[in-house]
Amino acid sequence: MNERFGRSRPTESRFKRASVKWTPTRLRIVAGDLGGRYIEYNGDPATRPMKEKTREALFSLLGGYLPDSYAIDLFAGTGILGFESVSRGSGGAVLLELARPAVTTMLANMCTLGLEQQIQIQHVDSLRWLKNSTERTADLPRCRWLVYCCPPYALWQQESSSLELGLKELYQCMPAGSQMICEYDDTYDVAQKLPEWNWHTRSYKPATLAIATKEG
Predict the structure, then answer these.
(1) Is-contact 210 178, C-beta < 8 A?
(2) Cα separations in angstroms, 35 against 63, 147, 169, 183
């Protein structure tokens, strides 16, 4: 099944959602088999999808084409990183998201793009998922994982301990050659908080991208 429902805390318990009118739009898949295709974005400002130029730079850093890989998109939002990964050759992806409207939109985009066999969408709290990542990833392919952790920037501060502990557990599960990709702003520094990993960082203001590769 592509949608899994679990008990979750409301997003309002983590950060206050501003009363802003949503403006639906579309996001372009940059390259690969689906390059030039679009996905719908409901416009929720709390989702904050990665800017296209930043996303293009990220996938260039990851090698452009991504064969023999599997994507895990934490705090998926629009799911664009998972969709783009599959477009660029990943064998599959799991997209994790708590907000029900975002899950609904991702499911519709998945069907429109014909990716029902490659993408799994889970309606779950990513922080809770991370607490049990050893169990939750047991059946995933043992190829290179691409783990995207791009939550709302405020979450890095508000849930820093939970995020750091969860990412450490997930890192232990990752096959050799896998990569952890984090996006955050200047209020946080994942390379400083998790110095035991070999991070490569790039600044794309206001975002910073940090990539850690798990050695064999």
Answers:
(1) no
(2) 16, 21, 34, 23
Are 79 and 121 within 8 A, CB to CB? yes
| R_g (Cα) of the chain, nearest Å | 16
Tokens of 23: 């403006």
Q: Are strands 92-97 and 25-28 parallel, antiparallel or unpaired?
A: unpaired
Residues 4 and 96: their CA atoms lie apart, in Å, by: 10
pLDDT in tens, 15-44: 444 556 789 999 999 999 999 999 999 998
pLDDT band, very low/low/confident/very high, at 177 (cuts 50, 70, 90)? very high
Query: Six-digit token pair at 150?
Result: 């791009």
Per-residue tokens: 21: 């009118």
DSSP secondary structure letters along 23-43:
--EEEE--SSTTTT-EEEE--
Secondary element (H or E) of residue 119: strand 119-123
Number of Cβ atoms within 10 Å of the Cβ of 125: 20
Residues forming beta bridges with residue 41, ordered by sequence position: 25
pLDDT digits (tens, 9 = 90+) for 86-97: 999 999 999 999
pTM for the full predicted model: 0.90
